[in-house]
Amino acid sequence: MSRNSILAASILAGTMIGAGIFSLPYVFNEVGILAGFFYLVFFASVYVALYLMYAAVLRTREGRHDFSYFADLYLPKKISGLASLAILAETIFVLTIYLVLAPTFISLIAETNPLFAVSVFWFLGSIFIFASLAWQGMAELLGTLAIIFVVFVVIFLGGESGFNAPLFKNLSVASFFLPFGPLLFSFAARVAVSRMVDEEREAKKTSRPFSLKGAIFWGTFVPALVYFLFVLGILGLTDNVTPEALNSLENLPSSLLAIFGILGLVTIWTSYFIIGANFREILTEDKKVRPWIASALVLILPLGLYFAGFRDFLPTLSFTGSVFLGLEGIFLITIWRRVFPHHPKKWLSWPLYLVFAVALLYALFQMFLPS
Which residues form a coiled coil (predicted)? Predict the structure, then answer.
């Protein structure tokens, strides 16, 4: 791989690896190692196909354009409005997930009231939403380094112990669908694809073209490998896995747990204000919302969802992945079909539709129908 190809793949992988990784050890523990591995490879393949479709759409227009631009261009007006609303709601739920995780990481450092922990994290994260782009770029690098350190320490420590989860488990209906939301969330990195296309265009200008297809493949499957090794590491360190992963490592020294807590906080803190700033920018630049209204929404809505009852990590993450990322996948496939109505691989859209539709419908079924 060329330097440009590695850079493009790193952009995708760095965007992809985030809060979702902490849910995966619990998921694997519930479905079994081999089934979990199958789900991991399957959803990585789904996202490679989806990101190749999106990259092809992005290539059709010069300049940088986001999802909302193509939704407005190729979807019916009412559907494009729903698509844009779904993306904005998805962003707010992602911010809420970081609020949910904050007390878990803070508890590894010191005992404190969860509501106080959430409030402090929200305040510090909100302040930096208004920081300069230079600060945000440095923060993105810091957050990436923090999570890489946590992952590799867990892999190193857990690799010495083997793993305690069963290879096989009998799957119920609930456990069969359990991985859908967390894995959709864990592979979500749509915003990185436009940056990869920009990188491809710059490389062509300097006569150093690279395979975007290869970069998307490696940028998706390298995180999949990291996820799998992280899962094995956690399962090697404990047989009582919680949905948040790190707070189940009670047998590790308290000093190491405190380091994990600090690095976990850095990871979600940097992600919180970068995503928050992006949400505010979308509202002000694309939707022409007044800056003070956009600022109020990004400050109030995540905290409002938290106090409205979205306080459990795995259910909130699964809901976000299944519903909003399910919708996102369906909309992206539809846009691709409209841009390339005679594409020879148009048939591939139907199995992809099925994956995202099943995730969406099962989540809605669980939400609205009695168990």
Answer: none
Query: Do residues 237 and 156 lie in contact, with contact meaning Cβ atoms separated by under 8 Å?
Result: no
Domain ranges of the chain: 3-368
**What does the pLDDT look like over 255-265, one tens digit per residue?**
999 999 999 99
* Residue in the block written with tokens 């005679």: 342
Structure tokens at 322: 């299944």
What would the two tokens of residue 15 be?
A: 């965007």
Q: How far is CA 169 from CA 100, 232, 244, in A?
A: 29, 16, 21
Specify the pTM. 0.91
SS3 368: helix
Phi–psi pair at 240, nearest 5 degrees:
-125, 75
Helices (H), 75-132: 77-109, 114-128
DSSP designation for 364: H
Half-sphere exposure of 279 (CA within 13 A, CB side): 29
Domain 3-368 CATH (choose: 2.40.50.100, 1.20.1740.10, 3.10.580.10, 3.30.565.10): 1.20.1740.10
Buried-exposed string 30-42: b where 16+ CB fall within 10 A, e elsewhere: bbbbebbbebbee
**């290539």: which residue's tokens?**
59
Instruction: Give residue-wise pLDDT tens across range 242-252.
Output: 999 988 888 88
In the numeric block, which tokens belong to residue 4?
């440009």
